Amino acid sequence: MRIIVYGVGGIGGTVAAASALSGQEVIGIARGAQLEAIRNNGLLLRTPERASRAHFPCVEDPTEITFRSDDAILLSMKTQDTLPALERLRAAGVAEQPIFCVQNGVSNERFALRRFPEVHGVTVMMPATLTAPGEVCAFSTPRHGIFDIGRYPSCRNSHDDALAQALEAANIAAFVMSDVMQSKYGKLILNLRNILEAALGLEADYGRFDALLRNEAETAFKAAGIVWRDFGGSDPRREQLMRSRPIEGVHRSGGSTTQSLARGSGSIETDYLNGEIVLLGRLHGVPTPANAYFVDLGARMIREKLKPGSIPIAQVEAELKAAGVVDRF
Ligand SMILES: NC(=O)C1=CN([C@@H]2O[C@H](COP(=O)(O)OP(=O)(O)OC[C@H]3O[C@@H](n4cnc5c(N)ncnc54)[C@H](OP(=O)(O)O)[C@@H]3O)[C@@H](O)[C@H]2O)C=CC1
Ligand SMILES: CC(C)(CO)C(=O)C(=O)O
């Protein structure tokens, strides 16, 4: 199997570097300063235990790759960047190759399945950050992360097994399952707090908002007949396989949404995290005002170029009350 990593950031960079370091054939698709750095100097993967430099070919566009039947294509850009990437894969002649959505949320699989027949979902549990062009940090030990893998919308096949074997060799714990979307919906609930951390800051006491977001999500899932696996922080595999540890000299700014704001990347994934709950609510007649509020807040932060952690908690409380989301906290 050859692994094509499309979007070589925190997650894609960790997967690409760890796979290349374990002797596997990898091609990255990256852009801007990241592409230039990888081409010039490879990609430095830093973990709590060590730093290792991986070298693998990296291109700017899928049309530069002669695709093979044994390619596995891993999408690891943020959801808002998926649609143009799928168009580039189509332009490059990709057809039957398996496409793995190594991404949060539950939208990417549907986007991909409109265009390609062999689509797979991956639940990503991997705290990782693109710290500088040419450098990624993966904070989990003893494994870089835990991935649940399966065919979309359900079932599993030999492509899942082949990727799981490759990931295991790269020190990423991989679990193949026939109902991976149950796992991805469970992870989505966990990611509803990405915007809380991004807006209010890592240290803010946002538990009461998290509970509101989660309640709305569970009600919307039930109304939509969606089954989810509630693993969250209590997944027993975490203690054994995935313990977050600091990396000397590196400050982890936070989760993936916080990282987008910190980098000033001009977009965030909230429309596909909290926005998924809002969409389900609207489709199934379930009110989701708290998730809708935070979708709007995320969009406002991008528009006004606000830094992570710059929204005071009292402002959020006042706005939620004024919007009639809650009477009091
Ligand atoms: N980071 C984390 O700890 C976790 C992230 N996730 C999920 O994993 C997915 C990836 O997140 P993450 O790695 O943090 O994101 P990053 O922003 O760190 O990485 C995505 C990379 O993809 C690049 N990219 C986007 N579109 C293209 C394109 N058309 N061609 C080439 N490169 C492209 C981006 O470039 P550019 O910067 O120029 O936009 C960026 O380098 C998301 O769905 C996220 O929610 C899940 C669990 C944990
Ligand atoms: C759970 C968490 C916050 C881990 O980093 C994540 O999925 C993300 O950053 O998007």
How do the helices and strands line up, and which of them pair or pack?
Layout: E1 2-6, H1 10-21, E2 26-29, H2 32-41, E3 43-46, E4 51-54, E5 58-59, E6 71-75, H3 82-91, E7 99-102, H4 108-113, E8 119-125, E9 128-132, E10 135-138, E11 140-142, E12 146-151, H5 158-169, E13 173-176, H6 180-191, H7 194-200, H8 207-224, H9 236-241, E14 242-244, H10 256-263, H11 274-284, H12 289-303, H13 313-322
Helix pairs in contact: 7-10, 8-11, 11-12
Strand order of the largest sheet: 5-2-1-6-7-8-12-13
Strand content: 15-25%
Helicity level:
40-55%
Query: Which structural class do the helices and strands define?
Result: alpha/beta
Low-confidence stretches: none
- CATH class assignment of the largest domain: Alpha Beta
State the helix count.
13
Number of strands: 14
String of helices and strands: EHEHEEEEHEHEEEEEHEHHHHEHHHH
CATH architecture of the largest domain: 3-Layer(aba) Sandwich
Protein name: 2-dehydropantoate 2-reductase
Organism: Microvirga puerhi
Keywords: Pantothenate biosynthesis
Enzyme class: oxidoreductase
